């Protein structure tokens, strides 16, 4: 039984309907053609009788799904790119077994198809072909176009499409601060054996970043995750390094540790601030030598894992919590993921992505939007970041048809998402144990951080406190 395909092609202005007939005849030898998406220049057909005649003739070859477009200059790369990305790409996202014919059109059109293909814009499994007619011999051919270039973009698009139920950070961010963080991740991920430290508030999606950005950037290496705060000291040590039977009470059999499981892959340690210091020092030794010892064993094992750590603590607090040598080792490459309130240009895209995950399976319902919702997304401090968006999405789905978005937003308490020790009242005990200058700096830091969270942006916080944004930035750096 032949595989069903969807064919996408421009109108070959000077050669159709013969060129189209040749393309379909050649593809029909190996496939069952279920649909043909036929792009034509509307303005050309309207003003050129010969082109119009050829267009009508092509429609008799196969029951085409026609796509009219308007192009002023068929050699202008930017114009063609904007048209194809904006109009054609969304049209084919749900097409399975898509085959794109490159032969019709200008060289600029060919270049755009190749660029978007490499960028991973088309569905997984899309195939490129080139259909040709030898003008001297009349021979008709249709050859595969081999263009096996893998980029970070193609790998990210593949992850996004293969994991539709998972939140996803788009790498083509609009907000400058988010773009910069993604660029750092891309650059740092290209270095093997150098740990990466991800910092950011709770709910910002650090584990998602590891799967959707770092993993593909490192060639798809398997990720082995561990939340350090989920285990006590002894269990964490055993979980990481493994143990031999009898190594401790309750060790009734040999168990491999995550260092072995993560060999030739990525070990992701979340909530790294909760790792006991003696385990930090053991892991530091492994990072330096690529060797470790299973608990209860005398022989050393080797591991070729790469390490990614994450924490929701501010950098200064994390440095104080961790062993100094361990911190220096894991923080060589450090990326701070900005909170959503600092990425307003991307917030509508974020909302759409969260909605697509929250909505019932097989539902095609678009993310809702009205003035009340847009105002909330653009002004709220979004204390739980993506978790706040998820919470809102589920409430809207639950009350659909019964309450307005405005009513839902007014009834939900989003402040409870902002669980943070700085917002529950500041204890003065910690300040009494510091020198005056250190205590003053520490208080300024906590006040600046709290104000930015409360009012949503540094600009608004500065207005409320009667200072400049630079003052707040300086306080947060110390």
Question: What does this molecule look like?
Answer:
This protein is an alpha/beta fold. The chain folds into 4 domains: 3-149, 3-Layer(aba) Sandwich (Rossmann fold); 156-336, Rossmann fold (3-Layer(aba) Sandwich), CATH 3.40.50; 340-417, no CATH class; 429-477. It is built from 21 helices and 15 strands. It has helices at 18-27, 42-47, 49-59, 77-92, 107-118, 152-162, 176-189, 206-217, 233-241, 258-261, 277-289, 315-321, 324-330, 347-358, 371-379, 386-398, 405-411, 429-432, 436-455, 458-465, 469-477, and strands at residues 3-10, 31-41, 65-69, 98-101, 127-133, 140-144, 196-199, 223-227, 242-243, 255-256, 266-270, 291-293, 300-302, 306-311, 333-336. The strands form 4 sheets. Strands 3-2-1-4-5-6 form a 6-stranded mixed sheet, with helices on both faces. It has a 5-stranded parallel sheet with strand order 8-11-14-7-15. Helix 6 (152-162) packs across helix 8. Residues 419-426 have low confidence and may be disordered.
